[in-house]
Amino acid sequence: MTDDTIAFGERLVAFLPNLRRFAISLCRSRDVADDLVQAACERALAGAERFEEGTRFDAWMFRILRNLWIDQLRRQKTAGPTEDIDAQAELAVPSGEAGAEARMALKSVAAAIDDLVLEQREVLLLTCVEELSYREAAEVLGIPIGTVMSRLARARKNLAEATGIEPAAMRSQDMRGGAR
Amino acid sequence: MNEIEFSDEILMAFADGELDEETTRRVEAALETDDELMARVAVFMETRAAASDALKPVLDEPVPEELVRKVRAMAASAAATSEAHCTETPVHTAENVVALRRPSDRVAAPARIVSRSMMAMAASLLLVVGGAGGYLLRGGGPEGVGVLQVAGIADPRVSAILDRAASGDEVSIADGQGTVRLVSAFQVGNGQLCREYELAQTGLPDLVSVACREAESWQTRLAVARSNGGAGYAPASSLETVDAYLTSIGAGEPLDAEAERKALAAKK
Question: In whole angstroms, how far apart are CA A54 and each of A127, A138, B124?
Answer without folding.
Answer: 20, 18, 21
